[in-house]
Specification:
alpha+beta; 22% strand; 30 strands; 21 helices; nine-stranded mixed β-sheet
Length: 738
Amino acid sequence: MKKITKKSQVLSFNKDENFSLKRRESGITEVFSKSKNAMAYAQALCHCEDRFMQIFLLRIIGKGRICELLKDNEESLKIDIFMRQMDFYNSTLEDLEKLPIDVKNYFQSYADGVNHFLKKRGKTWEFKLLGVHLEPWTIQDSLMVIKIMSYIGLAQTQQDAEKFIIQSIREEINIEKLKSLFSPHLDGIEDDTLKNLKILEYFEGLIPDEVKFNSLLPKMMASNNWIVSPKKSKTGSVIQCNDPHLEINRLPGIWYEQVLHMGDRNFQGVSMPGLPGIIMGRSDKVSFGFTYGFMDMVDYFIEDVSNENYLRDGKYESFLMREEVILRKKNPEFQFNIYENECGTLETNPMDGAPLKNGLYLNRAWTAKKSGAIGSALALYEMLESDDIYSMKKALSKISISCNWLLGDSEGNIAYQQSGLSPKRASSGLYPLRASDKLNHWDGMIEAENLSGLVNPAEGFLATANNDLKNYLNPETPLTINLPMGPYRVDRINQLLQEREKFSVQDFKEMQSDLYSLQAHHYMNELSALLANDEVSETLKSWDYCYDKNSKGATIFEEFYHNLLEEVFTDDFFPTSPWKYIEKKSSILVDFYYFFDKVIIENNPLWFAKKSKMDCFKNALARTQKLFLETRIQTWGEKRKVKMTNILFDGKLPNFLGFDYGPISIEGSRATIVQGALYESHGRISTFCPSMRFITDLAERKSYTVLAGGVSDRRFSKFYTSEIQDWLNFKYKEESLD
């Protein structure tokens, strides 16, 4: 562990008696300020100093202006179209108008800081090279960042799942098997709905050639967090762990670590460039961190369209039509129309340029489309004065992003709080309903005060890992989570937390490096009876179920596991070729693998009528043995290599220029505490792994942290890749709150 001293470098932008800035030896910037607004202004200067490219790239992409300002090709055009359809930027106007004046001033101070930097320092060389003119930063730009955070990789995963279900229905997949796979959430689907989905005028499925819209955007997906009360702590105080699992094969990493001082208040943790405040970390009295909550915030409705109008209760009404114009550097401008109503945005093909045909269409509804940033903006402001779990819970419950928050305070309290905009819906949310019947529409959102929360459980600890939280959720609250991730990671965390009476920071460091898979252990209990004396069998017999980089057992087991899934779920259910796409090039199995596991674990007779479960095991093992008779068994680290690439150049520059790092080996799996996912998503290689590790004991005024990258997006800064090796080797730096 690196201990960071108070040695620091003064950062100078302008003389201002309200704040001062320093850079610590670790590279982390430190803000000393007298007020919230001064702190926001100073924080913006730091973000611009170290993450200027990240901030302004995010704005260009979010506004759908890549073809105009960066790169004009067909891929960029698809990205711009998608961003205009989502309307991330313009839809924030309603949020802006509703912001209380003190919160608006706070965000304006941040914008003023960005614009001061832009005026005094100018744009970075990348934007000069591209000839990009950068307009001043606005509050709406920051609100747009909140909306993008809420959707990309988060709400989007629920959309992918529903699209998978709809496409399966359209492809005449066995409906009873499909219902059992997602039981009980498809039990209410009616025959008329099944028929309607097969005759849609336009359907943009999961499997077509996808838009690589996340090549410049962070893909936020999963995480772990856990916390113990004084009852389970060796120091008699709260200890908290956060390790958000995001896309790590990018430079810079998404998070920006900082220490902020506001009068006599102190904050430490990570921020999001483009936003003021600390998103995850601690203050003098409270620790806080989140995992993605898998709340279903996206639904589809079936619209009956005639003469470019939509049917409501027997009458046709007019769409709100937006005319969008995408300017292009090398091609004529591209114009298209977007059709919207009170349900959402109609899915059409903007590339054909034709008027809407009469017929049925899907209408995408996203809860954060309208007023989807104001709650998060309020929370970022209110968190600054939250000194116990009760005030912090109240603030966090307003956040529009689906999160499972864990928090603790200096009085020894610990708590869970759910956040997100969850609709009051008429069905499970996993299949479309007819929009023509207003009874099928959302009936508003579940109120923040009615979201689930839990304070001081008897066990003395709390843990979440994107799992089903039925033990934490309010039983009187309508269903908010229908497709969580599997329980293996949280079960492993709970297992370790139950094994000892008391824990220390060092114990939690060891937990954050845990590579043991309960999923593999479960399958191996059944597979072991089939193992013989060949190399594959002997390697599996001696395997410790850990996905470390030197493991050959992990490589063999994963080959067996994917062969087993193919044995069970292809042929009678899904054709082999589309299955391969879903398995290798989408996030369906990455996110929702446990629904497929349950079929196998429970030996569901609907799926094993022609081949028994053990026949499938035997066939999968035989295919695995045959493969490794013909090819060398690689270690897990050899098999799982990926480069960390610059977010602008995306691996297109020669290695010797130093914009990329690696390749590095990805340890862990879908089911280990150190989650290690490596897959192709929407046309590009993607990952999600621990993007930051954070541990703090509220008995101390310090935290132990490491980032998957460094604090700077400047290639020639010594802080561009300064923490990668420590991150790979589970080492931490020690950062003082003072």
